[in-house]
Amino acid sequence: MSFEESTSERKLETSVVSKQHHEVRYVPVFSDAGGTRRYVSGGCHPMHIGDVLNNGRYEIVNKIAPGWLSIVWAARDNQNANKIVAIKVLRADRSQGEVNELKVLQHIEANGNTEHPGRRFLPQLLDYFYCEGPNGRHLCLVLNVLGPTLRSIRWDSEFSPRLPCSLSRHVSRQLILAVDFLHSIGIVHGDISEDNIAFQIPRIERVRFDAARKGKLRRMDGEPLGEHVPQYLVEPLAHWRYAEVEELSDIQLIDFSASFFEAKPAWSVHRSMDIVPPEATFMQPLNRAMDIWNLACVTYRYVTGGDLFNSYFEPTDHRSFVPQMLRVLGEDSAPWMFKAWMNVITRKAREGLPPLEFKPAEEELPLIENIRECYFYFKNCAQRKRLLYGRDGSIVGYIDGEEMILYDAPEEHCPEVADEPEDYSGDEEDEEFLAMATSYLTRMLVADPSKRATASELMLEPFVQDTRFEPQALGPLRSVSYSSDDWTPSPPYRPSSRSGSDMSTD
Asked: Is domain 24-149+200-259 classified as CATH 3.30.200.20?
């Protein structure tokens, strides 16, 4: 949910590059997940700037965020003083029958008259309706417009992938309050991740929603585009600028497409591998405890700057994380994990899956050491150099002065980030912060879901009490993309494909 300020439209062309099985394929110039492949019968609605929805009430003015299952658009509410709202338009094949996301949002609204402080950190369903189009009938959810996600802030910050200590605690307090409210009304979020935590816009009136950037579509064979695809693509409001976000404070926990009612437990999860809870790995029914595990993994990221579990080079099999979990969580987790694994074998739940060769988890430190080392590693890196991140969140290099160093370069062209021995000691403020964060995380990162702390219990932790947070400018938030047109490395180094447009500075 990021916005790009522009005073004029740029017509950017895309073209057809191939035909496969009589299907025309388009390659957009925007970093728009899915491109035109989502515009098929049963897929997304081909929206254009200026389209009006719900009997003329809403007028589309820009695109906020693309996705495979839905696209979020900015629209002007003509019946409410031209207020800008966000309209999440679901795919037609996800809009049939009772849509679970709508039921969850309605349940939140029905229980919204409460004094629970966590309610205000969840979205408000302003309206909903259906629109008809060439690709089918689409459910449209009208919500408040929100700002950058936690992921984009961590990646775009000039200084560090860690949030400042006071902001970390402030965000953590809001998140645990939001989760506690959801659990109190019987809802499991099911997908607490950096992409589903968005900051509220401090000064929304300063954002220029009308400055849409379009990319015109055409076909090489000269044939018409057809009704299933839009006549042009709209570039998502992709990068926040400092003029638009001077202060970051309150967040909202968003996206309930994976949520479920605890009365009807889920049995599977399709989420990022490195935040999948142990009970999902061992194919047990999921409940509110999975939210606590997900929240712990996300909290670890913005508190320390790194990832608790390494998923970048692992196969897409949850079982591959068992050695990592055992190493990080410690031997106390072994009895539950062994019992859970035996239960899987007894139920023959893993029959038909290929054999899995476990890799040793020697590089993972026990949790308490892990938190400390990762915290100071990224703190020290941020003080010396600016890190480069790939779009998967992995560190791919760094900038030292005006020189860019990439980790996939030959060894002689790739010095270490740390040019001096790492110092894992801090001042009194660091030590106090780490002690509170460690206590908070260790109660959440428990293998046995029945022994994991609840949201209500975690609300009493010092880490989320008296956060002493005062909103302040965090400095410029800028995202610089490096492509082959932007820079030329010195010979003999030739960057791999990872050094292309999939890279931004932090």
From this structure: yes
